[in-house]
Design goal:
Structural class of chain A: alpha/beta
Strand content of chain A: 5-15%
Strand order of the largest sheet of chain A: 1-5-6-4-3-2
CATH superfamily of the largest domain in chain A: Thiamin diphosphate (ThDP)-binding fold, Pyr/PP domains
CATH class of the largest domain in chain A: Alpha Beta
Radius of gyration of chain A: 24 Å
Oligomer: homodimer
Largest interface: A-B, 67 and 67 residues
């Protein structure tokens, strides 16, 4: 797109990016839809950059001056454009396929890439009316970001539509899986950063596909964003090569779909085709399982999105590569308040997104952007599954006193202290078979909680052996979830 | 072997085990070596079982009676035979290839399978003379196990040759990698349990192969023991099928070598051929890198050993499968003191290892077993790399006071608090370039410790890009180790 070329006419100069490559071919969008999709993403990127830098002049209606810039620049640009890119394409898919979907941003400090689309779709203003969809609201929205008394640079709990903060890296897939449990229509989009992908909790959580039942649970759609860099280092998964990467995810039991490149138009078409394909694959898996009742582990789709770190940033600043480099991780230029040339570069960078085409005279998103977003509860920022408490149901709980041991006098009776807890859990499970599960690292029986198996077995959809019938307590619809990863168990509790 | 058939004439009845299968073919051992190898393993298994059950009558020289049995039975049989199997085959390989090797047992509570061979090779008695190589010593050795005032059922620090306790699951590969750093001749055998393989720390630690330099570091030989079960559950990796499993490890960058089956003779030959092959592969990688100085990431070999849980236990007890089942995890029969038929079954189980052929009149291992073990410091229980402190070298440290900031009066000077630490670390690195490394989760620069890069860069042997030359600070011989897994960094510190 012409607006992307202001500092890098040739994206092939990003040496990590050759020609675009995608597993799924096709150009599903016509020119109009492509332009609309790109406009939404441009608006997201403009907002992300504005959040990081601006405390005033939010629509650049006057020339950018030092006093418009925040005194203390905080926030992370690097992961933001790709997060917004995924959000953008999920918006398109939600409308096209009428999806019930939510969005989890794994990369740390990626909030600018998520807050932007949530603001554009109107979810933000509904909860925070002072961050209205006009120039004043936009200024307040920019200024509060990473600002004293404002909001954090993670997707903190006050972010509409966020159930995953991303501060402690490694839990995005576990949280996503927890959110999908017992929500059969839900698609949980989970963007995994290639930095966090190196953590232990994340590395084992690819195995969540062994714990999702295609009949009763929703789906998790992981999007691994290989932007190539952590803070100052390349990432392992971005450099191990296509073949190993592909085998790794097939070995984890997924069907990886690659989308790789840096040219926005090409990538928009590739991502749209890929998300369509993934959604249709997910729906086909669910339809088949739900029609037949046969539960086997599907090879769910996942997307590997390889895009430049800090995508659409200036190609170079002070002779150093920025877009596609670890230098794009945080604030790419810290000295804009005191360095006039850098202030000017920031202004042209902001203008490269053509804000005048994205916001109307009052500062509200133009019709093309408003029409691009899903509406009502289909907006990912407003989806009740991701807004704490809206779908919460009280458990039917028996009186715990009924499970106490009678102790007529000290030292007379003998009992194991956890066994009565197992009986209580059994009865809670029995009374709440649709919104209660027990998670454990294969210790329920050794911890004497096994009364629970009278009501529900351990979930298992891997292959079975004849001897499993003898006390294995395994079932494809079991509600006791056992895996020897306490990190994953912890993450699964993100249930709404 | 005839001695294995006392309760299970047909191993094919373990339905998870069809015919034996191995990636590497060959039967490298003649009948005599096979018999000797099997005798050593039988002795290990006898000792493991004795540790769990016996407080007296350690050589079964009189009929087994209830009073010979410990009052409180603790310990884990399940992982022990396979651990001893690997130890046995490493013993053979150490002698055959003159290896400098150590042994790390990942599976929790696997100590019986490790203590046995360490006792047989004499390492144990040298440190604990009361656990001598005779009947009295054997009795003391049995009795102390999981006994008040005795030793734990993990490979606790007092175990000769152990640098990995295995209590908190998930660190065996990280510890193994740490032990291999800067010990170019060392081969670190690391047995990974399929339970612990589900943990996050373990799942990401397969990536250690991206941090070992074939010129200056030793090698880690992982042996994933798929015995199929955790405490009460199947394990994920044992059930995902051969193709996914193979892709998973190729995706992690290893060359997986499968050894699968349950017939001891067949498995001894397969394992001997496989370990020979792996050792030769490791040596070939190292020779090539050391001859040319060209450092690229090798696709190191790793072994997938699929054997029945509780291998060589009775096939069935009380109508329930034991060998090859989760029921073999801990103490397969807890009631031998009070249940005469079970006491008898235990006796025949113990006798199935033919202790009378393994120990002489005094209770010492017979010549065939003594000759089977490596000698001196080549014994894995006596290897100085795995006996804390023997190879420890003091760091050459400058006076830390020289790095303090002068503060002539309060509130006058301004300085960053971690930058001087970076300068100190730089100088420590400079003075200790062979036995000092810095580990960090890609935070050294953001934490202002980057002075260290003046002396040594970040280790990196993945593919490189032209832009890495611009401030990437990467080098194939870098001594700053950065990975975004704090679990792995923690584990790497196991350096001797």
């Amino acid at each position: 797109m012409s607006d992307q070329t202001f500092t890098h006419p040739d994206h092939a100069s990003i040496s990590s990016f050759g020609p675009a490559r995608a597993t799924v071919s096709g150009t599903p969008m016509n020119a109009e839809e492509l332009a609309q999709t790109h406009a939404f993403w441009r608006a997201c990127n403009y907002l992300a950059l504005g959040m990081i830098y601006l405390q005033d002049n939010p629509l650049l209606r006057e020339p950018l001056k030092p006093e418009h810039i925040k005194n203390r620049l905080l926030g992370h640009w690097g992961a933001s454009p790709a997060l917004a890119f995924v959000y953008t394409h999920m918006n398109r898919a939600i409308r096209k396929h009428d999806l019930d979907a939510i969005f989890l941003a794994g990369p740390g400090h990626g909030a600018p890439g998520v807050l932007g689309p949530i603001y554009l779709e109107g979810s933000y203003s509904e909860i925070y009316p002072d961050k209205s969809l006009d120039e004043d609201g936009l200024q307040a929205f920019f200024k509060q970001f990473s600002f004293p008394g404002g909001i954090g640079s993670h997707c903190t709990p006050e972010t509409p539509g966020s159930i995953h903060e991303g501060g402690e890296l490694g839990y995005v897939l576990s949280h996503a899986c927890g959110a999908a449990f017992d929500n059969p229509e839900l698609i949980v989009t989970a963007v995994v950063g290639d930095g966090e992908a190196e953590t232990g909790p994340l590395a084992t959580s690819w195995h969540i596909n062994k714990f999702l039942n295609p009949v009763r649970d929703g789906a998790v759609l992981p999007v691994l964003n290989l932007n190539g860099y952590k803070i100052n280092n390349p990432t392992l998964l971005a450099r191990i090569g296509h073949e190993e990467l592909s085998k790794l995810f097939e070995g984890y039991g997924w069907t990886p779909l690659f989308v790789e490149g840096s040219d926005p138009d090409t990538l928009h078409q590739a991502m749209a085709a890929t998300v369509d394909h993934a959604v249709e694959h997910i729906r086909a898996i669910q339809r088949a399982a739900r029609a037949t009742g046969v539960v086997e582990r599907p090879r769910w789709p996942m997307i590997v999105l390889r895009t430049p770190k800090g995508w659409t940033a200036p190609a170079e600043i002070n002779g150093h590569q920025v877009e596609g480099s670890w230098r794009a991780h945080q604030v790419p230029m810290a000295d804009v308040k005191t360095h006039p040339a850098h202030l000017q570069l920031l202004e042209s960078w902001l203008k490269s997104y053509q804000p005048e085409t994205l916001f109307d005279a009052a500062g509200a998103p133009v019709a093309a952007i408003r029409q691009f977003t899903p509406t009502g509860l289909r907006r990912m920022g407003s989806n009740p599954h991701a807004n704490g408490g809206r779908l919460k149901k009280a458990l039917r709980l028996p009186d715990f006193r009924d499970y106490g041991m009678e102790v007529p006098e000290p030292g007379r009776i003998e009992a194991e202290n956890t066994r009565p807890l197992g009986v209580l859990l059994r009865d809670v499970m029995k009374a709440n078979l649709r919104n209660f599960r027990v998670f454990g690292p294969d210790e329920n029986t050794s911890n004497k909680l096994n009364a629970i198996y009278e009501v529900s077995k351990k979930f298992w959809i891997e292959s079975s052996l004849p001897e499993d019938a003898d006390g294995g307590e395994l079932a494809v619809d079991g509600r006791v979830m056992e895996m020897l990863s306490e990190h994953t168990l912890e993450g699964w509790r993100a249930i709404f």
